[in-house]
Structure formats: C-alpha cells, structure tokens
Amino acid sequence: MFTGIVEELGEVVAIEDLGDAARFRLRGPVVTEDAKHGDSIAVNGVCLTVVDTADGEFTADVMAETLNRSSLGAVTPGSRVNLERPMALGGRLGGHLVQGHVDGTGTVVERTPAEHWELVKVALPAALSRYVVEKGSITVDGVSLTVVEAGDDYFTISLIPTTLALTTLGIKKAGDPVNLEVDVLAKYVERLLGRGSDLKDLDDIKEMDR
To answer: pTM value?
Structure first.
C-alpha cells in the first residue's frame, strides 16, 4: 500500500526484452536505501517487485499485462519516473490509500500555467470517469492529487511548485500518457451497492442459522 507521495524522481537505466515481459533496471538511491529482494516499489504508480538492488539501482520484472495496461510500455532508457516505497504501518498517511494497481491510462490534454502553480487537464477513459469527483483524490503517475474539476471524459488538477519540480508531472506535455488509479473505496462501494440482492440472501442465511 502506498500514499501517492513521491519520494524520488528516478530514471530508467535499461530495459531487457523478455518476449512476453520485460526486465527494468531503474536508478533510485533513496528508495533502494533499505530495499531488498521481494520488496515493492511504485514506479509511476505501478507496484513492482524488486528482483535485486546494487549501487542505488534496482531491477524489476514487468509482465505483459502491466506493459499493456499502463504507460510503462512506452518508457525507454533515460525516461524519468516517479518512485515511492510502501507506507510503513504507524506512519503518517500524507496522500490517500494507493494500491499501485493501475486502472487505466489517461492523456495530458493541456497545461495552463499560473504564477505559482499550474492547472493540468487530463483525458480519461469513460469507464473511469464515474469514480472521479470534484475535490476527491486520484493518483496520476503515482502522485496523489486532488481533483479540481471532474468532467464526463476529463478531469483537472492543480500542481504546486514542489510537485512540478520533484515529479514527472513537471515535464509531461500535451499528448503524453499517464497512469491513473482511482480511489479503491469508490470501487468497493459500487460493487457492494450492485450486489444488494446478494447481501439480502446472506442475511437470510444468517437468520436461518440462529
């Protein structure tokens, strides 16, 4: 579980094509300080498992499913990426609960700079728009952000100087893809409300057991 508070702006060092998968080598001195084989690190919001670490770098195997469903399939050696280690139990929850399970990709539509911040419009798949609400949370390339405006096929976010300077969102341009993860609580609520009849049947079973 992550919080969407990016710890480090890392870099893709190399990508090895494995046919139906790929092995990524990434540079991230901060996130590899205490990382070991089997640990998780979020890369642009995608939860990846560490294969090994050495000299401030780590490798991770990326399945075809991940390459197809996220923007990691489009990165190349030299690409900058957002890195975050999992949250520690008992620590502060700075952003919101993030699983690192990408729901889909969006596209940066336009950027509107202001004096001290920047408004970014992102197009998203229609299937995800119902989970996005004004003032709600969304994860964009692993960054926990607050939605400013929620449209039928887009949303907008405001980026402060820190986010612009320390994450890939400062260098994304119109047309670039971004990974999106919506609030998992919204998906659970939708699932439960859609299974109201099933829940009623379960109550009946419990009543018979009494």
So the answer is: 0.80
